[in-house]
Design brief:
- The structure is a single chain.
- The protein is an alpha/beta fold and 562 residues long.
- It contains 18 helices and 10 strands.
- α8 runs antiparallel to α12 and α15 packs across α16.
- Among the domains are: 238 residues, no CATH class; 125 residues, no CATH class.
């Protein structure tokens, strides 16, 4: 310890050293704060840009056009740096259709136009001219708007003359067709029209009310809604249940969910968010089934209950509710993974990215070279291109059988995945950034993203379910909400039958009409319900053509096959 005049100097030096340490600590804290603020500003700017894009920009990933000097190749040269051989096939371009080919399925009505009486004499000599024949002039399409008529049933009544002589009156009356709804003018054609307009053409009940009013048919929206709900729940739900049972016996399915609003739910506020869950069969070569399921929430117990008894592959996004399913193999959607990388690309560079879907008509060349080593790309762009390379390869394999597809996948695609995961491990993105979210999404779903390699029937993306979710979202933009739980359940049933009919190449309106013709008398017969499945020969014959409510009617519906 210094003594004398040096004691104060020593204390002063210690004081300065302490101040220096405190200032250094303060500077470190300030630098950390500045770094955190910069990250926050960057993340907020990303969020703001994304909101602006969603509000004012395009709402989906767009596939860019090929440059004028590029044309898609007819055969694969390389994929992931490896030579690939696929079964030779030729894709034919669509031939330009003649008008008569476009309208070949429409009925033809011939109209003969005779020469008027004043022009039937020869313009040169004035002698009467003889008929030579008819020459085709032109054709046009003519439509008869919907015609509403009152159909009154009169029952024939028979009386026995022998019994009458004995003072006994025996009377027999013809049986009336079973009504859809007692004491109601609802008919199969009217209700099928209401259902198809609401869930097939997205016309809410209040618009239908106005349209019926123009035809001088006073049908309040409450009446229309009652027809829709009761006929769906009473007559179409057995068909839905039968489809559900067959769905559970399949091995490859897709799943997704989309929010909805129901105003009058038990013990819930009108603003509470409910959900339509979407389930559909995959590419297994069997008839397609599409099912919508209304539920009041988004918890894992809802898909677990709907899929109870199912065992197989479930294509889905990364939502944790699907991870609670037991006895299934989750196949995570690579399109969702790619979308997160795409959203991490600065907006001014997104226009240079072209995204590929397996089933898109427009081809996009395979990304070239070692993607991870390219210095001209941002990390998010590299993530998009890795995904694009896999989509490119899957596009080339789509015409192969499931077994062939699995074989060639295992030979060519694991190398791409290995490069992708090696590249992912080199990244240290800024905390909270969109790139970090994309990287974490990929890491958290590493196994399930690659599960499609286990079976050639599995797909790289869950876009099939996304498209069915979009069907409901488009409808929701028009009717906005469901009034009751029964209304939401009825909508799920009708939409399921419409989309399943489309998946099997049927006319959706004609399918609904045929079901409403037969179900009042056959809803309790499992054998009859089997004949009304969308893939039965009976339904294919009756529902593959145009709308027809005149050939078969409630009084003459035809007979179901035994």
């Amino acid at each position: 310890m210094a003594e004398g005049p040096y004691a104060d100097i020593q204390k002063y030096i210690e004081h300065l050293e302490q101040q220096t340490q405190e200032q250094a600590e303060t500077i470190r804290n300030l630098n950390g704060t500045i770094t955190d603020l910069r990250r926050t500003i960057a993340n907020l700017q990303e969020t703001l840009d994304e909101l602006n894009r969603k509000i004012f920009g395009t709402s989906s990933e767009k596939t860019g056009r090929l440059p004028d000097d590029e044309e898609p190749g007819d055969e694969i040269r390389t994929a992931g740096g490896h030579e690939v051989l696929v079964k030779e096939h030729t894709r034919k371009s669509k031939a330009k259709s003649m008008r008569r080919d476009l309208y070949e399925a429409l009925p033809v009505r011939r109209v003969d136009i005779p020469v008027p009486a004043g022009g039937r004499n020869c313009p040169d000599c004035g002698a009467p001219m003889e008929h030579l024949g008819w020459q085709f002039g032109r054709e046009e399409l003519r439509i008869t708007p919907a015609k509403v008529e009152r159909v009154q049933y009169f029952q024939e009544t028979l009386v026995c003359p022998v019994c009458r002589k004995e003072d006994v009156t025996t009377i027999t009356r013809a049986a009336l067709p079973t009504p859809l709804l007692s004491h109601s003018p609802a008919s199969p054609s009217m209700v099928a029209t209401v259902m198809y307009d609401k869930s097939g053409l997205y016309l809410p009940f209040y618009r239908q009310e106005k349209d019926w009013g123009l035809q001088e048919v006073p049908l309040p929206r409450e009446t229309i809604g009652n027809w829709y709900n009761r006929c769906s729940l009473d007559y179409l739900s057995p068909i839905y249940d039968a489809l559900h049972e067959k769905f559970l016996g399949r091995e490859v399915i897709h799943a997704d969910e989309v929010p909805c609003q129901v105003l009058h739910e038990k013990d819930r506020e009108a603003q509470a968010k409910s959900y339509f869950w979407i389930y559909l069969t995959g590419s297994d070569g069997l008839p397609g089934i599409v099912l919508y399921d209304y539920q009041p929430g988004r918890a894992g117990k809802y898909p677990a209950a709907f899929l109870e008894g199912f065992s197989g592959y479930v294509h889905c996004d990364g939502y944790s509710a699907y991870g609670t399913l037991t006895g299934v193999i989750i196949v995570c959607c690579l399109a969702h993974c790619r979308r997160k990388f795409f959203e991490a690309v600065p907006k001014e560079r997104r226009k240079d990215l072209r995204l590929l879907d397996i089933n898109s008509e427009q081809a996009i060349p395979e990304p070239e070279g070692d993607i991870a080593a390219r210095e001209d790309l941002l990390p998010a762009e590299k993530g998009v291109l890795f995904c694009n390379r896999l989509f490119f390869m899957e596009r080339e394999y789509r015409d192969l059988s499931a077994d062939e597809r699995k074989t060639i996948r295992l030979r060519t695609e694991p190398a791409v995945w290995e490069s992708f995961w090696s590249w992912i491990d080199t990244l240290s993105p800024v905390g909270g950034s969109k790139l970090e979210k994309a990287v974490n999404y990929a890491r958290n779903h590493k196994e399930s993203l690659m599960n499609y390699l286990l079976d050639g029937r599995c797909e790289l993306s869950n876009n099939a379910a996304e498209r069915k979710a979009k069907v409901y979202a488009t409808s929701r933009k028009n009717f906005l909400f469901h009034d009751t739980e029964d209304g939401a359940k009825a909508s799920a049933i009708v939409m399921s039958l419409i989309e399943t009919a489309k998946a099997n190449g049927l006319n959706p309106f004609q399918y609904l009409y045929t079901l409403l013709l037969f179900m009042p008398d056959h809803k309790d017969s499992p054998a009859s319900i089997e004949q009304l499945m969308p893939w039965s020969d009976f339904i294919k014959e009756r529902c593959s053509g145009q709308m027809d409510t005149e050939t078969y009617t409630p009084e003459n519906p035809g007979e179901l096959p035994a």
